[in-house]
Write the structure tokens for this entry.
Amino acid sequence: MSRNRLRVEPLRRYRAPSYPHAPLDVRPLLTAPRSTSSRTAKLLRALALGSAPFGLAACDYIVPPATAGSIPFEGHYYYLSETDALPLLHEAFVARGLTITAPYTFALDAVAFEADGYDAQKRVGYELIDIEEAGSASVPSADAQVQLESWRAGTGPYFLILDAQSYLYALDVDGDYEARLDELRSDIGAFLDELAAAGVI
């Protein structure tokens, strides 16, 4: 019975691996989303800056606006964060004569959450729902949102519930970020006009 012997020979030639030198857009990684935890933000930055040794030229790019929210979709799309939206909400509500407590621990019947802003006397408030907060006690559950909408259509309390992902903007489109802010202002104004017409405020 023949036996095959394994013969090992020394490596005579070795070719160093090459890495791509074309610039890779790492702007989303360099941006620390305001709605992202500090640990996650540090990791994203480390991944971006760590690409420099491989010829990816991370430092050749301009960091996106500091007001950017998270990155829910592929590409350079962001949604308005609390840092973007809450000051606009507070300013608009106060301008209509409301006394806003922010944040406010709201609890009525089976609905309980930490509202972003609320006037307990007028029973008028607002809440910006961020995808990263989904399921936490700081935002109303899906059932709670249904109940809030029912109250709003009736005798109150009256909450403006906003989905942050409804205000997406592209980094590479001039004026897109400002357009989303204008859209948010319009939605806030429509809500407050509705309450004013009903005599609530």
